[in-house]
Specification:
Elements (H helix, E strand, L loop, with lengths): L7 H11 L4 E8 L2 E6 H17 L7 E5 L4 H12 L3 E5 L5 H10 L4 E4 L5 H4 L8 E4 L9 E2 H7 L14 E6 L9 E5 H15 L6 E4 L6 H14 L2 E4 L6 H8 L3 E4 L1 H14 L2 H8 L2 H15 L6 E4 L6 H9 L4 E5 L9 E2 L12 E2 L4 E4 L4 E5 L6 E2 L3 H7 L6 E9 L5 E6 L4 E2 L5 E2 L1 H8 L5 E7 L7 E6 L10 H21 L9 E3 L19 H18 L3 E3 L1
Parallel strand pairs: 1-11, 3-4, 3-5, 5-6, 6-7, 10-11, 12-13, 13-14, 25-26, 26-27
Antiparallel strand pairs: 1-2, 8-9, 9-19, 14-15, 15-16, 17-18, 18-20, 20-21, 22-23, 24-25
């Protein structure tokens, strides 16, 4: 891949001059109102904040924390930290106090920026008293120094600070589906390479529009939203809240839209709630109505202007992919991880294959080990784990390939299929090994299911824990509804069991009454299932469920 060798700050300075008066970011401020930030204003405020940070005389390359939901100030802060010669440490806005405390202490953060948050009171006890806090305009009430006061008081940093390509730019803490979060060290070159490579594959230009709503603390959003907008120079919009999400989408009218499987499934369930699948399928077969229906559905979702839609973070069920493609939205899956700045594999328009996450991105070497593990090498791969040489050594092969921990296979066109996590594979009492992900994907074809966890270590056969969608959950006490679901789940088990090996056949489905969420720690901040937490929550009941010998069990 030909790189321009432009690092993130080079791009900041470029757009500061080239598009000074063009709007870069649109920020909702409540009550249906928004504030536009031109490139000129955004860089000016970042320069002023950088002046302030330099005035603190912090040790060189200090770690500076950033706790906020996505907003314009998140991105300006990232730039300011870099301009001041420091390292940004983003934290998810949904972490509990213990995890906040662990990360801020582990990274030895001197300063923390506090922004838009739903539950600051829960997080606040995790911030050490010695840490200086600065608040964004949309932050919860506090007595910290404010962004607006600081940028009004300090002059903009005049010089165009240059950072070395191989310098540490940011420490991204993994979302921790198991154990303590690890601090992934990424250089300016890692970031630049991933951003340029991603744009090359996706053909992104300066006229795009994107809505930023997945956490910027995660590399998926950081690479394909923050860095992509910085390298391409396109317009970024932010979401105000979950309640205003549809209005936010309709305001942005994105041409590029990225999401995660859980949200793609939620969007689909929302449509099918208003227009049941059988009726929709019937209407789609009528040529005159077909185009109108597709257009109406996409417009209702705020996705009618989308020319490129992507899904990442976890596999998406093939039925869901096909459903969107039938609407005319070619939903492209990608694959990456914190350790390679989400830059690994991407499906290409016109070359995608259902169930596959695409081809190696430019500059990425991929191989499958004898054990079936996907191993990757690229210039976007991390420098290592912060303060953990042992785990860094464990993460790489002797010849420098990153061990992903995922199992996979590659087709004749070089497209990669993820077949499961090596660590998720469990052994039944019969001594047979089972990868839960492929079975879970088959179960997710059912419209009523929002999330599923296949388990069964040391049992004779696996079983599935199922969480119904938010439209279906309130009806769980209704006997007629339960009977209907029970019959369809019996059929689902029979259908799935026909497609898997005998040792993989499900003994039963349990419909859980709990809602699995980030707040109750069943999900990571990126909405991935914390398998160990889910399994532990129901462990005491499992033997009793097996003893019932029923295909469908209600918790």
């Amino acid at each position: 891949m030909d790189t321009t060798n432009k690092l993130p700050l080079d791009m900041v300075y470029h757009w500061e001059k080239a598009k000074a008066n063009s709007v870069y970011m649109t920020q909702p401020i409540g009550g249906g109102k928004t504030v536009d930030y031109t490139w000129g204003r955004a860089v000016d405020e970042a320069r002023r904040m950088a002046s302030y940070l330099k005035s603190l005389n912090l040790p060189e390359k200090s770690r500076i924390g950033l706790i906020s939901k996505n907003c314009a100030h998140w991105i300006m802060t990232d730039w300011a930290i870099w301009m001041a010669g420091h390292i940004s440490v983003p934290l998810y806005p949904t972490l509990n106090a213990d995890t906040v405390n662990y990360i801020l202490n582990h990274a030895e953060c001197e300063v923390v920026f506090v922004g838009k948050l739903d539950d600051w009171d829960m997080m606040k006890p995790g911030v050490p008293e010695s840490v200086r806090c600065i608040s964004f305009p949309l932050s919860p009430p506090n007595d910290f120094e404010t962004w607006d006061d600081i940028v009004a008081k300090y002059p903009p940093l005049e010089e165009n600070v240059q950072r070395d390509a191989n310098e540490l730019a940011t420490i991204v803490y993994t979302s921790g589906s198991t154990g303590k979060p690890k601090g992934v060290m990424l250089s300016f070159y890692n970031m630049a390479y991933a951003a340029e490579g991603g744009m090359e594959v996706l053909g992104v230009g300066s006229e795009e529009r994107m809505l930023s709503y997945l956490p910027l603390a995660h590399v998926f959003e950081r690479t394909f939203v923050e860095l992509a907008s910085l390298y391409a120079g396109f317009h970024l919009y932010f979401a105000e809240s979950l309640d205003t999400f549809v209005q936010d989408l309709q305001r942005a009218q994105p041409t590029l839209f990225l999401s995660v499987p859980r949200l793609w499934v939620k969007f689909q369930h929302g449509v099918l709630q208003k227009l049941p699948k059988k009726k929709l399928d019937r209407l789609m077969k009528i040529p005159v109505v077909n185009k109108l229906i597709k257009k109406k559905i996409l417009k209702g979702l705020g996705l009618d202007k989308v020319k490129l839609a992507g899904s990442g973070s976890a596999p998406l069920a093939s039925d869901v992919l096909d459903w969107y493609r039938n609407l005319g939205l070619e939903l492209l899956e990608g694959y990456g991880m914190s350790e390679n700045f989400a830059y690994s594999h991407m499906s290409k328009p016109g070359r995608s294959r259902t169930g596959y996450v695409g081809e190696s991105a430019p500059g990425v070497k991929t191989r499958i080990s004898p054990e079936g593990e996907i191993q990757i090498k690229s210039p976007a791969t991390m420098m290592g784990y912060y303060k953990d040489e042992e785990k860094t050594r464990e993460a790489f092969t002797e010849d420098g390939f990153l061990k992903t921990g995922d199992k996979g296979e590659i087709d004749e066109m070089g497209r990669l299929k993820i077949t499961g996590r090596i660590k998720e594979i469990f052994k039944t009492s019969k001594g047979k090994y089972i990868a839960p992900a492929p079975i879970e994907n088959r179960l997710m074809s059912h419209d009523a299911i929002e999330m599923v966890c296949v388990s069964g270590a040391n049992q004779t056969q696996p079983h599935a824990l199922v969480m119904l969608g938010e439209e279906a959950r309130p009806k769980m006490a209704d006997e007629a509804f339960r009977n209907e679901i029970e019959e369809s789940f019996k059929k689902l088990i029979a259908d799935v069991n026909k497609t898997v090996d005998p040792h993989e056949q499900l003994a039963f489905i349990t419909v859980v009454s709990d809602e699995w969420s980030i707040e109750n720690s069943f999900l990571t901040p990126t909405m991935k299932l914390k398998r160990n937490v889910v399994e532990d929550a129901y462990q005491e009941k499992v033997d009793k469920w097996y003893a019932q010998r029923q295909p469908v069990i209600w918790q």
